[in-house]
Amino acid sequence: MILAVMQPYLFPYLGYYQLAYHSDKFIFYDDVNFIKGGYINRNNILTNGQKQLFTVPVEKASSFTKINELHFAANRKKVIKTIEQNYRKAPHFEAVMPVISQIFASKETQVAQLCSNSVLAVFNYLAIELDYSFSSELDYDKSASAAEKLYAMCSLNNADKYCNMKNGEVLYKKEQFKANNIELSFLEMGDVAYHQGKHEFVSHLSIIDVLMWNSIDEVKSLLQKYVIS
């Protein structure tokens, strides 16, 4: 069984969804510290062929506070309007915008919950079932090292394989996981490109961009374009 663990992000990029898709069980890592200035509460969309950052403000944002203890600002109308303005002419706008709007217009303010809802909403739109849970629901040593926490999560979920994004190679070593009877692998997004109107392709944008320019079947195909090492 393959386990993957990631902090909940707000409509993250395609690689995040590929990791969740590749796993047999996905855990939203919601009881670790918020990354101020990171991508938990923001991402990039396409504006006139260029990356444009959208951000949903987090009240009393702090890198010393757990993600599931923080709340988003309730009014997110500006973000919805920005997305509408930039994707109104995209081929799948009519199908996708209600999915996006429902998340941003939600009364939910808890950061971990709204972010995870954005991930789940995309899988629901694609009719793909995701087996998931939250790390805060698990009984493990919260004071342990980063790797030891992952060993514990694997044990609690009867997972003998753990997959991490490629950039985790600087943090985790296969030999150390093997010593704990866990096979460690890394996922890297493959050579993904798709039509973005009249503009030259811009990569690593929010999944919102992928959905707006691609049909459900095309998105499912892109979900499988990754490399495991």
What's the short story on this structure?
By secondary structure, the chain is of the alpha/beta class. It is built from 8 helices and 10 strands.
Structural commentary:
- The chain has eight helices and ten strands.
- The chain has helices at 14-22, 77-87, 93-104, 111-125, 146-156, 174-178, 207-213, 216-223; strands at 2-6, 25-28, 42-47, 50-55, 58-59, 71-72, 132-134, 161-165, 183-189, 226-228.
- The two termini are 17 Å apart.
How many DSSP E strands?
A: 10
Overall body shape: globular
Order of helices and strands: EHEEEEEHHHEHEHEHHE
Q: Residue share in helices?
A: 25-40%
Strand order of the largest sheet: 7-2-1-8-9-10
**Radius of gyration based on Cα positions:** 18 Å
Number of helices: 8
Strand proportion, as a percent range, falls in: 15-25%
Termini separation (Å)?
17 Å
- Give a short account of the largest sheet: 6 strands, mixed
Structural class: alpha/beta
Mean pLDDT: 96
As residue ranges, the low-confidence spans are none
